[in-house]
Specification:
The complex is a heterodimer of chains A (307) and B (268).
Chain A: H1 7-15, H2 22-33, H3 39-51, E1 53-56, H4 64-75, E2 89-92, H5 97-104, E3 110-115, H6 125-138, E4 142-146, H7 149-153, H8 157-171, E5 175-179, H9 188-200, E6 205-207, H10 219-236, E7 241-245, H11 251-265, E8 275-279, H12 282-295
Parallel strand pairs in A: 1-2, 1-8, 2-3, 3-4, 4-5, 5-6, 6-7, 7-8
Chain B: E1 9-11, E2 14-16, E3 23-24, E4 33-34, H1 38-57, H2 60-76, H3 78-85, H4 90-107, H5 111-115, E5 117-119, E6 125-133, E7 136-140, H6 148-159, E8 163-167, H7 174-184, E9 193-196, H8 200-209, E10 215-217, H9 223-233, E11 239-241, H10 250-255, E12 257-265
Parallel strand pairs in B: 7-8, 7-10, 8-9, 10-11
Antiparallel strand pairs in B: 1-2, 3-4, 5-6, 6-12
Helix pairs in contact in B: 2-4, 3-4, 4-6, 8-9
The chains are: A alpha/beta (307), B alpha/beta (268).
Chain lengths: 307, 268
C-alpha cells in the first residue's frame, strides 16, 4: 500500500474518481430495499445481522456499569438461548475501553473504540494520533476514526489523507475504520471521493456516519460507498470492509443493508470481517423478529431488556 | 357530482388501504371494504403501543373533553349514520351511541374515587389501591348493532386511558369505518383508536397471540372463538374480557383497568 503519496499523485487520483449517477443510485437502493426475505432465509439473515453487529453506546453519560451491561448483552444477546450468536464487537468511547476489557475477557467479542476527536474530528493531528495510540494500548482491537470534514470540504485532500495514514500507523495491529460522516459531505460525488481517498490511505473499513449527525446512514449512500469499495478492490486487490452506522433501528433496515451488500460486493462480504452494522437499539428488534419467526406470535418490547 | 367513497382502515390516525391490497364486499353489497391482513394488525398494535403513554398520561378531564367531543362529532353526522345503519332502529341506535360517549366522558375523573380504595392494614403504611390503564386493548365488535356495539366497548376502554385496536363487525363494517372519521376529528391523538376491517377468522389468532396486546374484549365472538382466544391469550396472560352485552356501567371501565396497590410508609 502506498503510504507516501505525493501531492500530484493524490490530485490525479481524486480527479480520476468518476461522478455518481444520483438518480440511478437512489432507484437501485430503493429497489433492493423492497426485496422480501422470509422464513428460514429471514432467520439466517437475522443471525448474520447479529454476528455483524457493532453494539454501540456513545453517550456522555456512559458509565462503567452501563458498559458492563452492554458487554454482557454483546456476549449473550438472549439470556438462556445459546443459539443466538454473540455480536461482532462493542463500540465505545476510549475511556470505556478498560471496562470492556474486563467484561469481555475470554469471549469472541472485539472492542472497537472511537478516536480522533470523535465526532467532529476538529482537533490537532498530534492529539488524534496520541488518542489512537492510547486507545490501542488500553486494549482496543478496532479504531473508528472520523475524517476531518472541514479539510475535505475545503478541498485539502492531502491533509485528510496524511491524517488517515498517520492514524493507521498509530493503530499498529488494530483495524482502522474510517468514518466519512456522509451526512456532512453534501453529495454522492463527495462520498465516493472520500471513500476512495480513505481506502487509498489504508482504511481497513469505511463507515458511513458517527450517528451524531442527521441524516446518518442511508441505503443509497451505502450503495455508493460499496460501489467505491468494489472498484477499489478491482483496482488494487485489497479487500476493504464496509460499516453502516446511525439510524439503523429495525431488523427490516438491517436486512436491507445485507441485501445491498450481497448484490454489490457479493457473498465474500457477508461476514463480520468485512461487514458491520453499528447500532445501539437494533439488537432488541432483531431478537424480537427471531422470536416472532420461532413462536409465530408478534412480540412485545416488554419482554426484552431496557438498554 | 356523485363522489363514491373508498372505505379505508383507520391506523395511527391515518386512513389507509390494507397493505395486502385486498378488499371484500360485506353482505353481498356493492361497496368494497378493505380486507385487513395480519400486517395491518401488527401496524395498528405498534401505533397503539406508541400512543399509549401519552394517552394514559393525559389528565382525566382532558380525556373526558375529548370523549365529549367525539359525541358532538357523532351527533353532527347523525343523518349519515342513520342512513348507513338503515332500518327502523337506526335513529335509536345512533342516539344511544351518542349518549354512551357522553356518559363515559363524565366518568373519566370519577372512576378512581369509585373503584379505588384506601385499605386498612396492620402496619405503619398508608395503603391505597387505584385503577391504572392496562395498555393496548383489542376489541372484537359484535355484528348486531354495528355502531352501538362498538361504541359501548371502545368508550369505556378509552375512558380509563387505554388504547384500542378494534375489529369492526365483519358483516356490517361501514358504520365502524365512518366512526373512525368521528374519532379522527375529535382531537384523539393518532394511534389511540385503530379500526380494522376484514375476516375475523383470519385476524383473530394474530390478535389473540400478539404479545403486545394486554387485553382483548370478546364481545363479538362465538363460544368456540372465545375458547381459541383464551388459549392463545395465555401466552402473555392477556386479560380476556367477557361481559354481557348491554347497559353501560363503571364496572365495564374497571374491566379494562389494573388495580395497583401502593404501600406508603408513614411515621418514618
Amino acid at each position: 500500500m502506498a503510504t507516501a503519496l505525493s501531492l500530484t499523485h493524490l490530485g490525479s487520483l481524486m480527479r480520476g474518481v468518476r461522478s455518481v449517477d444520483e438518480v440511478g443510485a437512489d432507484e437501485r437502493a430503493a429497489s433492493l430495499a423492497k426485496r422480501s426475505i422470509k422464513k428460514s432465509s429471514k432467520l439466517w439473515a437475522l443471525d448474520l445481522a447479529i454476528r455483524c453487529m457493532d453494539l454501540t453506546t456513545l453517550e456522555g453519560q456512559d458509565t462503567p456499569g452501563k458498559v458492563a451491561a452492554l458487554c454482557a448483552k454483546a456476549v449473550r444477546p438472549k439470556p438462556g438461548d445459546a443459539t443466538v450468536p454473540p455480536v461482532a464487537a462493542v463500540c465505545v468511547y476510549p475511556l470505556r475501553i478498560a471496562d470492556c476489557v474486563a467484561a469481555l475477557r475470554g469471549s469472541s467479542v472485539r472492542i472497537a473504540s472511537v478516536a480522533t476527536a470523535f465526532p467532529s474530528g476538529q482537533s490537532f493531528t498530534s492529539i488524534k494520533v496520541a488518542e489512537t495510540e492510547e486507545a490501542v494500548r488500553a486494549g482496543a482491537h478496532e479504531i473508528d476514526m472520523v475524517i476531518d470534514r472541514g479539510a475535505f470540504l475545503s478541498g485539502d485532500y492531502q491533509r485528510v489523507y496524511d491524517e488517515i495514514v498517520a492514524v493507521k500507523e498509530a493503530c499498529g495491529e488494530a483495524h482502522l475504520k474510517v468514518i466519512l460522516e456522509t451526512g456532512e459531505l453534501g453529495n454522492y460525488d463527495a462520498v465516493r471521493r472520500a471513500s476512495i481517498l480513505s481506502m487509498a490511505a489504508g482504511a481497513d473499513f469505511i463507515k458511513t456516519s458517527t450517528g451524531k449527525v442527521q441524516p446518518a446512514a442511508t441505503l443509497p449512500v451505502a450503495l455508493v460507498m460499496m460501489e467505491a469499495i468494489r472498484d477499489f478492490v478491482r483496482e488494487t486487490g485489497r479487500p476493504v470492509g464496509f460499516k453502516a452506522a446511525g439510524g439503523i433501528r429495525t431488523a427490516k433496515q438491517a436486512i436491507a443493508y445485507l441485501v445491498i451488500t450481497y448484490e454489490t460486493l457479493g457473498p465474500e462480504w457477508m461476514t463480520p470481517d468485512r461487514l458491520r452494522l453499528g447500532a445501539s437499539t437494533l439488537l432488541n428488534d432483531v431478537l424480537m423478529q427471531i422470536d416472532k419467526e420461532r413462536t409465530g406470535a408478534y412480540q412485545s418490547a416488554d419482554y426484552f431488556t431496557v438498554d | 357530482m356523485d363522489v363514491r367513497k373508498t372505505y379505508k382502515l383507520f391506523v395511527n390516525g391515518e386512513f389507509v388501504r390494507s397493505e395486502s391490497g385486498r378488499a371484500y364486499r360485506p353482505d353481498g353489497g356493492q361497496v368494497n371494504v378493505p380486507r385487513g391482513s395480519r400486517k395491518d394488525l401488527r401496524d395498528a398494535v405498534r401505533a397503539a403501543r406508541t400512543a399509549f403513554p401519552a394517552w394514559a398520561g393525559r389528565t382525566a378531564m382532558n380525556r373526558g373533553q375529548i370523549l365529549y367531543r367525539a359525541a358532538e362529532m357523532l351527533d353532527g353526522r347523525a343523518a349519515q349514520f342513520v342512513e348507513l345503519l338503515g332500518g327502523a332502529r337506526a335513529r335509536r341506535e345512533l342516539d344511544q351511541a351518542v349518549e354512551t360517549l357522553v356518559w363515559y366522558a363524565g366518568w373519566t375523573d370519577k372512576l378512581p374515587q369509585v373503584t379505588g380504595t384506601v385499605n386498612p392494614v396492620a402496619g405503619p403504611y398508608f395503603n391505597f389501591t387505584i385503577p391504572e390503564p392496562t395498555g393496548v386493548v383489542g376489541i372484537v365488535a359484535p355484528d348486531d348493532a354495528p355502531l352501538l356495539g362498538l361504541v359501548r366497548r371502545v368508550a369505556p376502554a378509552l375512558c380509563g386511558g387505554n388504547v384500542v385496536v378494534a375489529m369492526a363487525a365483519e358483516s356490517r363494517p361501514l358504520p365502524a369505518l365512518t366512526l373512525a372519521e368521528v374519532f379522527a376529528t375529535s382531537d384523539l391523538p393518532a394511534g389511540v383508536v385503530n379500526i380494522l376491517t376484514g375476516q375475523r377468522k383470519e385476524l383473530l389468532p394474530w390478535l389473540a397471540s400478539h404479545m403486545d396486546v394486554n387485553a382483548i374484549d370478546v364481545a363479538g365472538c362465538s363460544g368456540e372463538e372465545v375458547k381459541a382466544i383464551e388459549e392463545s391469550a395465555a401466552g402473555n396472560v392477556k386479560r380476556v374480557i367477557k361481559l354481557p352485552e348491554g347497559e353501560r356501567s363503571p364496572y365495564l371501565i374497571a374491566a379494562f383497568m389494573e388495580m395497583k396497590t401502593v404501600w406508603h410508609p408513614i411515621g418514618v
